[in-house]
Design goal:
heterodimer, A: N-terminal domain of TfIIb, 4 helices, about 25% helix, B: Rossmann fold, eight-stranded mixed beta sheet, globular, binds zinc ion, Trm112 (chain A)
Amino acid sequence: MKLLTTNFVQCAVKSCSSSSNCFPLHFTECELVHEDLEFDEDFIKNVMVKIDWPALLSVTRDIGNNSLPEEKPNIESCDEQVLRDLHLVLLETQIKDGKMICKNCDHLYHIKNTIPNFLLPPHLA
Amino acid sequence: MSRPEFIAPPEIYYNQEESHKYTNNTRVQQIQAEMTLRALELLNLPSSQYVLDIGCGSCLSGQVLTEEGHQWVGMDISAAMLGNALDLDVEGDLFLADMGAGVPFRPGSFDAAISISAIQWLCNADSAEANPKKRLKQFFETLYASLKRGGKAVCQFYPVGQDQIDLILHSAKVAGFGGGMVIDRPESKRHKKYYLVLTAGIDGDLNLANVEIENNVSKRKKRKGDESKRDFIKRKKDTMRKRGKDVASDSKFTGRRRKPKF
Ligand SMILES: [Zn+2]
């Protein structure tokens, strides 16, 4: 799972959907891999509008990266290197294995071989 | 052709053997690619969008999304199918998830959604707990929330009959979507294809050149005057809840006139 996706996925437990604590999930025991992807400047510009920066900081800290700035970069005025760095963080960094925990209900989701398992037992769905 | 959804639930039917057969069948590959391109044509997206692929299977559709320059997240209930997608080294993210339990993404995540040959599975009742109506409701409500306002979704599917089309359309409408059915090659029994075309919120600029929309989902008429202040507040609160906002719970004081404060 790309780091980008951590900025959108939330707890799937039905009773959590109305809680503001179901996003972002808490990440732990994550093994990261790098995957080279062609730089897509347009996509970074498109998606940065939607990125919840504090949530991204929370997740990058969970996985032991403190290199991101406190303030969300201004996409209109930043130079290309910032866009390339964001591309590297959001799209080329993947969680290969790890765990995600809902801060509201403590439900644990496993990521195995880059694929998070969101199948829920019937009583939670 | 026997319909797979009559044989077993998807996570059972698409076991390793079936999903391998499916993924490597060139005719399946060709038809899936054609339908994905058609869905993208209907979506009429600008480049570099963030797209959800519902029931992505082994991501034959995802490969088309990548070729067309989009980033995507695919979800499927069959681990074997997703395993095949990993073998294909696809670029999108893969989620093992049941669409009938909902789309697990925060409000406004995606610019668009596609689904190729999947949502008819929502109408199955494979186990005692499975309730197709509930599953459709949960699916469309969470899909609606996960799309940005004005976001669009195109779902190609194989309906069993008009009743199923009506049920799916009704569920989408109740969840807030506008749109309807686009039917390609309606004269051909073999090649007829059904596309559910939906817009979330404001009307998106769908590419509907040369198509007729059947069963158009019209927006609910605005109710004015004939609802109480309390009902109005309740309706607004429900809408905000659907959009994933935190809303105060309803009580006997909801919508009541308060005493003036000094
Ligand atoms: Zn939760």
